[in-house]
Amino acid sequence: MATVVTVGAHILDVLARPVEGIPGGQDTVVVDQIRVTAAGAAAGTAVALARLGNRVVSVGAIGDDDLGDLLVTIMNRNGVDVTGLVRRTAEQTSASILPIRPDGGRPSFHVPGANLTLTAHAVEPGLLAAANAVHLGGPDVTFGLNDPEFFAALDAARASGTVVTMDLLSNMPDLVRGAAAFLPHVDHFLPNEEQAAAMTGEDDPEKAARALLAEGPATVVVTLGAEGSLVATAGGVHRLPALPVEVVDTTGCGDAYCAGFITGLGRGEDVLESARLGTAAAATVAQGLGSDAGLTDLDSILALL
């Protein structure tokens, strides 16, 4: 069992499906399902990692409010150690409302909230060095971590054997480009296609992956939605197809992919086999509502492969 520290964006998601449009006036539309989940590139990945059998400590900033209480309850229930969360009295917990379309599309209403207040001082350097892996989830929106002190802590952890992975939260070009500063301090970077293009200016995902490799990571995994993913290392580029499943909601698929990938690394798999595990985890989540849908344990994910 690996010990993983997730650092970054913590969001409470409220999801409803299926939603074809916002009703006018005071009208009510009856939907099939409404769920509340722990989400965000740190919290969502933390829950998925815990369900796959890892020991997980999550570090981030949330509000001292009811939303934060609920987020902590959900993460606790899933076995995530939340002692690394700091509570902010002046900011609300980051939250999203997602009306999921019948085709699985996920427009959102989002409050950034306390995520914007996370700084390097909230992260205990010894915690990073003691972990098998550290996952940076959404440093594009927790830009207080863009700090030489935090980079030094990451480098020290890597020198002691900790593996560092990174995923982004937004597709906003300015925020994504700002996260490029983390790349020299990361072993494996897992952006989606839009993020990779925004960071490099390359629309072709293979060219984007090669450009990102040149910035420092040993591996760049570009997720391509229904087209699967692309795994790039110094040894070459491999494409992995998505698994054929009926898509209900794509929320959290990237977080699940990261959790599967990190779990594979913790099991001693190479990056390609780890990416296959990530593919299976993402396919599982896509079949239900919310970022943790369908994830029960590692054996169920392995069975898909």
Describe the structure.
The protein has ten helices and 13 strands. The protein is α/β, with parallel strands linked by helices. The strands form two sheets. A nine-stranded mixed β-sheet has the order 5-4-1-8-9-10-11-12-13, sandwiched between helices. Helix 2 links the parallel strand 4 and strand 5 (81-88). The mean pLDDT is 95.
General shape: globular
Share of residues in helices: 25-40%
Strand content: 15-25%
Q: State the separation between the terminal residues, measured CA to CA.
A: 20 Å
- Structural class designation: alpha/beta
- The side-by-side strand order for the widest beta sheet comes to 5-4-1-8-9-10-11-12-13
Using only C-alpha atoms, the radius of gyration works out to 18 Å
| Poorly predicted residue ranges | none
Q: What value does the average pLDDT take?
A: 95
Element pattern in H and E: EEEHEHEEEHEHEHEHHEEEHHH
Main sheet? 9 strands, mixed
How many beta-strand elements?
A: 13
Number of helices: 10
